């Protein structure tokens, strides 16, 4: 069974619900020799990234996700902040770029895009045996990634207003030059040529700025799927991770059986992603196989069916079916945020509800925060 790992980017908010730049202070208080989930800085000081250890068992992934959220929260609290798993700040904000030579170079080069983009995503890493296998996987999962985005949507509000999107993070993130889907590669050589071509343009600084929906990791032998919002409910993050591993296993089986990937143009995938970001699971989506418009729930069920054998082999099928039913019923993080706002029409309630939901599986929280 393949190992997998999860990275979550969390927003730090103060008692008014405003994003607050305390990550450097919080991270300075990290315990030495962290066991379990690890924490690191991100481009903005209002964010902290958590990383699980690699596991084959999704119960252990969930435990690390919860531990990472708790640790980030515990380190933020002495500085008047809480950690919230929301993909964008529901309230107005002014980001503060983390002091780092690379980030400073990005700020100088890319102006407002670097200065103003504060988005929190979820990245899932799945182990691969070779780069050849990895490229075969990328070619065969690309048409399913919009469905993963639809299942993760968690950024309907930004700057104090409803954006009309279920994932406005998708819109903000795609200001970056290299974000989005790719065409088919067919070989490691073609993938490497693609990377060199983009870097050689001089438009991006290096391979680290290849912000693709899915890519081969530059640091470890994994496929890294980066299309999703950070999920509000930690259980949804595990559903996402299980589906990504299921897609990887299914893609490898197809590759070994000589089944060619679907030749879907990247332009069509961009449309599918845009629609997923607009309505999440509550509207329609292009079907991942036929490309025709269908209810989003049909596209989701097609994904579960497509990966069903792999999910069953990994022991994830029941968890995924239960989680998908929950997400379809609630609308995921976007639906939960909008429900919180609908109760009293207060954006601070959205943030307070998000803080509570972020840590629902952990210890009891002070419900007076962001009252």
From TrEMBL:
Keyword Ligase annotated: yes
SUPFAM superfamilies: Glutamine synthetase/guanido kinase (SSF55931)
Any one GO molecular-function label of the UniProt entry: glutamate-cysteine ligase activity
Catalytic activity: L-cysteine + L-glutamate + ATP = gamma-L-glutamyl-L-cysteine + ADP + phosphate + H(+)
Enzyme Commission number: 6.3.2.2
InterPro entries with a match to the protein in the record: GCL_type2/YbdK_subfam (IPR050141), GCS2 (IPR006336), Gln_synth/guanido_kin_cat_dom (IPR014746), YbdK (IPR011793)
Magnesium in keyword set: no
Source domain of life: Bacteria
Single GO biological process annotation from the record: modified amino acid biosynthetic process
Summary of the function given for this chain in its UniProt record: ATP-dependent carboxylate-amine ligase which exhibits weak glutamate--cysteine ligase activity.
HAMAP family: Glu_cys_ligase_2
UniProt record similarity statement: Belongs to the glutamate--cysteine ligase type 2 family. YbdK subfamily.
NCBIfam families with a match to the protein in the record: gshA_cyan_rel, PRK13517.1-1
Name this protein carries in UniProt: Putative glutamate--cysteine ligase 2
Organism: Leifsonia sp. NPDC080035
